[in-house]
Amino acid sequence: MAPTPDDTFDVVVLGAGSGGYAAALRAAQLGLTVALVEEGKVGGTCLHSGCIPTKALLHAAELADGAREGARFGVRSTFEGIDMAAVAAYKDGVVAGLFKGLEGLVSSRGITVVRGHGRLVGPDTVEVRAAHGAEAPARLVGRHVVVATGSFPRTLPGLEIGGRVVTSEQALRLDTVPRSVIVLGGGVIGVEFASVWRSFGAEVHVVEALDHLVPAEDDALSKALERAFRKRGIRFTLGDRFEKVAEDDSGVHVRLASGATLDADLLLVAVGRGPRTAGIGLEEQGVTLDRGFVVVDERLHTGVGNVWAVGDVVPGLQLAHRGFAQGIAVAERIAGLTPAPLDEATVPRVTYSDPEVASVGLTERAAVEQHGADGVETLEYNLAGNGRSKILGTQGFVKLVRRKDGPVLGVHMIGARVGELVGEAQLVVSWDAYPEDVAALVHAHPTQNEALGEAHLALAGKPLHAHN
């Protein structure tokens, strides 16, 4: 249904990514009328150019490594190469299927989807210009407005995107495997693409300005990932900054602040994501921005009229599932419910590299800052003692951080498929569980999930297998 100039809705949502469509779906479920404004496709970055297509590439990479390593398991398999057209077809098929399902869901809830660029022209009014700009802009009045416009790949001053210099969005559309890649940024996006390209056969060199890969994670996980990457032949330079890049027919040539130079076919810029808040009328309506991010209270309200914000535009973890949870919470508050504020420390984090990194809660460093060195206890349980991990041939560990004589504050894991274990870890941290509470639970055998149980047994003072 196309809106008319006089259309008024209970909720107008600006942006149809994870946070926006979650807010729209929950609001409609609660009986509110909803307009969902989106310039691109419903699903946003995560579905179309982020989480989903990236993880599809990572699964293809896992299969490539499996083909190489078949003999290790008694399977006669060989790796013959990567057909990027076929990989792209598989990736695009996954995205298309999820997109079709999401569009159907949005339609079935009676949500009005308005295509075009939305801009606040009043605290309760959104003007939407169609992409081609031929028609007069539609004006939507919302008793509440939810800003959920997401984020974009950042670059650095003097570093222009184009040609052999790409962001993650262009990297997802490559039709060949580069022979060599420099990845600028050793955070989640950088190490995931580094992992994919190495599995596809490329030479990879990661440059990270901080002292560790995945620097937001516990130091023990960062060091373990660095060891694993060295073993895989992924090179990296830490504690050094990008200075300039030159491009010619032979490739890209990157100079670092230390004076070191690196050469490759391609440069991936993965230095983080910025909030997509420019040009949508926020400051004109009195909404406070900080470095482009929307400043909100613990309820995600902007302090202006009935304007709310969720997802990547709000300072904090830029994760799809965080935005999704925030979207639901805001819809419930608009409907008169009182959901508890989201505790960011309980939001799980997963890096889908090989090996995977998964965590929730405080790192050891953060726990010590809060409770002092004498007030924190840690334990690492090596996956070498876990039967399922042994079968999979993976290495890694589960690290627990607890307040001394108190609850578990953080769970940090590295190894194949540990992202699938973070659900229980989230419950442990969210519910302030003591090691003894988790140790009493029965974990199925043989599963990697047992490693969580064994780690808590050990931290509770009754280790049954060796741990480091």
TrEMBL record:
FAD binds at residues 55, 118, 149-151, 312. GO terms for cellular component: cytoplasm. The active site is at 445 (proton acceptor). Its EC number is 1.8.1.4. Residues 9-327 form the FAD/NAD(P)-binding domain. Its cofactor is FAD. The active site is a redox-active disulfide bond. This is Dihydrolipoyl dehydrogenase. It comes from Luteimicrobium subarcticum.
